Amino acid sequence: MTETKHNEVGAINSVPKELHIDGQWRPGASTFAVEDPSTAKVLCRVADADADQGVEALDAADRAQGEWAATPPRERAEILRRAFSIMTEETERLALIMTLEMGKPLTESRGEVAYAAEFFRWFSEEAVRIDGGYMTSPVGGSRVLVARQPVGPCVFITPWNFPLAMGTRKIGPAMAAGCTSVIKPASQTPLSTLALAEILERAGAPAGVVNVVTTSTSGEVMGGLISDPRSRKLSFTGSTPVGKKLLEQASRTVMRTSMELGGNAPFLVFEDADLDAAVDGVMQAKMRNIGQACTAANRILVQRPIATEFAERLRERLAALTVGRGVTDEAVVGPLIDAEAVDKVDSLVRDAISRGATLELGGRAHDGDGHFYEPTLLTGVPTEAEITSTEIFGPVAALSEFDTEAEGIASANDTPFGLVGYVYTTDLARGIRVSEALETGMVGLNQGVVSNAAAPFGGVKESGLGREGGFAGIEEYLETKYIGLGLA
Ligand SMILES: NC(=O)c1ccc[n+]([C@@H]2O[C@H](COP(=O)([O-])OP(=O)(O)OC[C@H]3O[C@@H](n4cnc5c(N)ncnc54)[C@H](O)[C@@H]3O)[C@@H](O)[C@H]2O)c1
């Protein structure tokens, strides 16, 4: 394998490793280590904030709020637009930083940089379109003005699996709406967010508008911020159990919340599907991000007459994949985030086999120092296997069969989660019927990737509350104010 010519050390050195508070880089109370999951070696150490430093970040966001809300929308838009341009120009550096701290292949990291930057471009355009209303009451004819105002300082908590895009999806609309924020990235992947803060600084974001707190003690540091009445909105992307805990904390001050939580996506393949397209779709929906996506196809449900052929075609494609470090120029399956993730994936595979599933490929950790797991295919996975009710978060395709359309829909909906579903069929009427019947916030109809800055991303049921992206994305950061006009 050829290592890329990119300078890994240079990329890591280019990122400030301190807290970003009030436009300044400050040391933490201590430091914590960031690991490269493909080597299990320490990449660098990063500032570890304590609870007081978390509060200092909120102080800064609170102080900056008034002036930022009063900054003309065109100026806010131009800062976002400049940040988009810088991110685009620095794609290679940002992609390498992301691959080193998270593990995904460089090609996917480049894709994430483009996707992440697009939220800045989209919301730079939305920033100048915020408007209110003027209405005549249908009873009595009095007049009402409806003004739009930023909700105020926000608290953002992001996961490790999409280190850059999960940040811009929150920061973009918040800045566009006139909100300041404190963002806390996952402790496994703080570097992408720190790099983003430095880019926003270069793009002209005023001090205090975006503050970054890196910490290894998230509960302690963020608990104080969430229960502080100055925080007016919490936007969290992460697991459902942590989301539920944060919702309880947020209820104390009745703050607004957006929750982008876990998924358990069904991937339905009907007998009339274009099988090549459906296999391509699984390769995207299952293998992207090494299976570590909230949108990952967790349960692949195939109509019985085509199940054997579909499994064989998928097995061939999975068997052709190479496992390796994401920084190589080849298309590879990178590592999982840590050793615990490898153990979890392996125990789900063992459990499925013990309950009657057939192991067609893989099924074990990959040799080497990093946290690799082999691309794996299971068929005949019974509903009682844990893998059908748990987010796998690994390169494991779990197939089971169904007979009728109604049975396929019922199996697909048999989960407390509802982020996304995938439907493969060449019958458009069936495709729309099934898409409408799925209890999810999103559907990929003959499409294996659903993510677009211009469209509302989010789930129903225990997959979350609120939407990110699209017109809906900025609404999350705006309050309406009813101003009744006494004109008599
Ligand atoms: N719906 C979506 O858009 C979306 C997108 C990406 C990931 N996810 C979900 O995220 C999960 C994977 O990410 P993860 O393992 O980083 O999730 P996680 O819930 O463990 O952590 C997410 C973030 O919350 C922080 N955190 C953990 N405990 C906390 C606490 N008590 N108080 C405050 N912060 C706390 C973590 O440090 C991290 O920054 C999966 O469930 C995945 O489906 C959802």
UniProtKB/TrEMBL annotation:
Alphabetically ordered keywords of this record: Oxidoreductase
Segments forming domain Aldehyde dehydrogenase: 25-483
InterPro entries cross-referenced by the UniProt entry: Ald_DH/histidinol_DH (IPR016161), Ald_DH_C (IPR016163), Ald_DH_CS_GLU (IPR029510), Ald_DH_N (IPR016162), Aldehyde_DH_dom (IPR015590), Aldehyde_DH_Superfamily (IPR050740)
GO molecular function: succinate-semialdehyde dehydrogenase (NAD+) activity
Residues of the active site: E260
Pfam families, per database record: Aldedh
GO biological process assignments: gamma-aminobutyric acid catabolic process
Protein name: Succinate-semialdehyde dehydrogenase/glutarate-semialdehyde dehydrogenase
